[in-house]
Amino acid sequence: MQQTWRSLRALRSSPPEPVRRNKRKRDVFSASLEQSEQYFKAAEEVGYETRPVLAFYGLSQIGRAIAAATHTDRLNDPEDWQLSGHGIRVPGISQAATRGNIGTLTIRDQGKGSFTQLARFLESPSLPTPVQLAELWDSIPEMRGRTLCGGDHYPALEISEGSDRTRDDWGDRGSPSVLVLSGAPKQLTSLGDFLKHYPTVWPLEGLQESSFLASPRGGLEGQIYLNPLRRYATGGFASLHGTQYRGHSMAFPALTGNLLPMHPLLAWWAALYALSMLARYEPATWATAVNVDTSKQAVPIEHLLDEALDAVPALALEVMSEYSLSDHDRGQARSEIEKKYNRKEYRTFSEIGRSVMAEFRHKVPSPKNSERQNPE
């Protein structure tokens, strides 16, 4: 965390290009980062009873710095970068609090304000439909295996490459390389129905087979193995289809009401906002929720509030590096990634076989044509 804040502090004397050109932006950028750092450091020093309030305001201030650093390509007008209002709410917080399960709190956007502005700057869906906190909670990578309540869970899945551990019939050469999605729940009623919640990686064109292992090496999470017809160069699938998150390539679920995944920084924003509202306006309910002697939700809550102090500043640093660039520069960088991996892509033997047969059929004349050309 210290290194992250050093990097953020260094931006104040060498800010991103959109900030450098505008004195007003530069003043807001610098002051917001300073306040954010102080909020997060203060949050580290207090107990969980008040930490969500300080952590959320730390995120809110760093959001203002992100907005100032956003390239003008994504602004509706020259003053659009100035955030105003939370832009998000927790309807019926008192009624939800009386039920005693904070996972049932619902969060939605207000159609305007800081949250929806940032969603537009980050080219992300917002929360036009009420979403339960438990669903948002699952989508935060650090919270895998630390759910708030029962029911279906759609966590962020880490994308990698490896071997299918469910098969042992591949002979001496071992199992072929497959795509691995790690972090799935140990119980899945239907693999296909589960994967439908991950639109960036599913459906997978040319899929030969898929399989699921509830717990490789006896861990807390399951692994999904995808064996596509197309073979990607090493790291190709993760780079082309995954979302970079703190050095890992992830597949995020699409939340209720959205067709695509929400940016992970916004998931943190919504979760911390909900907890801060509960701590401020329903303090008795919040005190019960974080009581480790009586509440099963207390330890997962502590874990999220601990992880937020590292994850949010690190994500903010990544976001400012990417979204301060122009659309042209970002598109060019994406094009270079696609060229790199498409150039190194290789084909399976079955693909090569079909291609050879297609060329052979194209070159060899049909029997009828042969008879017309040579009556003898």
Structural class: alpha+beta
Q: Bin the strand percentage.
A: 5-15%
Q: Using only CA atoms, what is the Rg?
A: 25 Å
Strand element count: 9
- Strand arrangement, major sheet: 6-7-5-4-9-8
Order of helices and strands: HHHHEHEHEHEEHEEHEEHHHHHH
Main beta sheet, described? 6 strands, antiparallel
Helical proportion, percent range: 40-55%
Helix run count: 15
How would you explain this protein's 3D organization?
The protein is α+β, with helices and mostly antiparallel strands and 376 residues long. It is 47% helix and 12% strand. The strands form two sheets. Strands 6-7-5-4-9-8 form a six-stranded antiparallel beta sheet. A three-stranded antiparallel beta sheet has the order 1-2-3. The longest helix is centred in the C-terminal third of the chain and has 26 residues, at 298-323. The protein is globular and about 65 Å long. Residues 367-376 have low confidence and may be disordered.
